[in-house]
Amino acid sequence: ADSEAPAIDSEALATLHRVFGFGAFRGEQQAVIEHVVAGGDALVLMPTGGGKSLCYQIPALVRPGTGVVVSPLIALMQDQVDALRALGVRAGFMNSTQGFDERRTVEAEFLAGELDLLYLAPERLRLDATLNLLSRGKISVFAIDEAHCVAQWGHDFRPDYLSLSLLGERWPDVPRIALTATATRATHQEITERLNLPTARHFVASFDRPNIQYRIVPKADPKKQLLAFLREEHTGDAGIVYCLSRNSVERTAEFLTANGIAAVPYHAGLDAAVRAAHQSRFLREEGLVVVATIAFGMGIDKPDVRFVAHLDLPKSIEGYYQETGRAGRDGLPSTAWMAYGLNDVIQQRKLIQSGEGDEAFRRRAAAHLDAMLALCETAQCRRGQLLAYFGQDPEPVACGNCDTCLTPPETWDGTVAAQKALSTVVRLQRERGQKFGAVQIIDILLGKRTAKVIQFDHDQLSVFGIGQDLTEGEWRGVIRQLLAQGLLAVEGEYGTLTLTEASGSVLRREREVPLRKEPKKPAAARSRSGS
Ligand code: ADP
Ligand code: ZN
């Protein structure tokens, strides 16, 4: 051993060997641990699976007193505490799932200085009774896990996290460490402000997950596409399939099961007992697929998740990154696979418009969605785009392990096609005072005399049939990309199409519209009615 290393180092390292059985620290772990052991505040930004837990567990073991861990993941506390106890760490938790006697025991252990780590839910920590209890014991460090829950933006916001700012006032001498896997600058700033951590040192790990292969395929028949993907590449592997609605979670799980793939559903509408059973089967069994809404996954620590599949578009890159990040924590090759299509764009745009929140909230939601859409539509390296979004310079520029690197998409000059689609929307609006959804616009472009086209006399429009040079699938691709690029907008509960400010420049021929070519296969696979 290095005899010149400071004592703190060797104690932390000895704890890593002795308690956790690991040979060396990973990435920023050592720097974080040294800083916190020495009494400094820290903000730790590390991707999921990066090893955040040790960053507070080791300081809690090395410093005198009990480390208090604030975590919103009540369902996982028992597991976390059991895992620590199995390693000989004196750990306990306090949350609403506990009986009175059990809590009493933990309180007594804490007061007697017999706990290394105490896990608490944020709603419990803010109670006077809890604060008084904590004041009567000795605390080594406060760890605030999933710290992005304090950020007002995002689906994980927990109002109870706001009261955590008082920890610094009440315990000025106890170091605080906030940890999150959410990485944007705006979130960092919100965390430091709201948790009152102005002098915390920031430790930012690389967000690159080189073993994850990112792929986004055009959506045609998503369940079948998923099945083919699993059969071709992930037979017998454990993985997570994310769907937007509970209904599609159920149907997808049934579909996979019927096709010989072991799959269980998970969503907030299921019985708590069923959810817990499915979660623990996923953690314990090999090769189980969980089909889930985003209710599943925060805090799930399963190293050998070989794939994460999205059948619906996530609302933001943050969500996509966090969800896909659950794949390949063991560092072995894994796949992040998503099927994405026109209806995803329309659906998400509609959700934002009809959703709650004021104008500013909607604008932010739209900006998050735009970034996600840009990732879907890019012809550049996906990993590069992801890292750039998180403020990290991608290196090398093309990763060689994403679909756009492996098979660079062809692009074409879609200016004329864009003009045709936009003129159709304009004609309907100006000449008829009407707005329609994508299906009708495409039928008009293709010159299809469907019942609805006849009903509205749309075969009399001058634009009727001007788009017969492209297939239906190609038109869906054009409309989808126009929506993604902000050259078309979605309105109202029916998702009718309307122009944006930017549309004018295309109609006036002031700008070109480069588009990604749609792969032939899924377009041809669509059944075509009419003609
Ligand atoms: P996070 O909370 O950042 O998602 P965890 O703390 O759960 O990540 O760690 C992810 C996995 O990596 C765990 O299985 C953990 O035991 C393992 N791990 C963490 N640090 C090390 C290390 N220094 N050496 C070996 N394995 C580690
Ligand atoms: Zn790439």
TrEMBL record:
Residues in Helicase C-terminal domain copies: 222-376
One cellular-component annotation, GO: bacterial nucleoid
Catalytic reaction(s) noted: Couples ATP hydrolysis with the unwinding of duplex DNA by translocating in the 3'-5' direction
Stated name of the protein: DNA helicase RecQ
This protein's encoding gene: recQ
Entry's family note: Belongs to the helicase family. RecQ subfamily.
The Helicase ATP-binding domain, residue ranges: 33-201
GO molecular function list: 3'-5' DNA helicase activity; ATP binding; DNA binding; four-way junction helicase activity; hydrolase activity; metal ion binding
UniProt record, GO biological process: DNA recombination; DNA repair; DNA replication; SOS response
UniProt feature, compositional bias: Basic and acidic residues: 508-521
EC nos: 5.6.2.4
Cofactor (UniProt): Mg(2+); Zn(2+)
Domain of life from the UniProt record: Bacteria
Species this chain originates from: Streptomyces dangxiongensis
Record keywords, A-Z: ATP-binding, DNA damage, DNA recombination, DNA repair, DNA-binding, Helicase, Hydrolase, Isomerase, Metal-binding, Nucleotide-binding, Zinc
Region (Disordered): 508-531
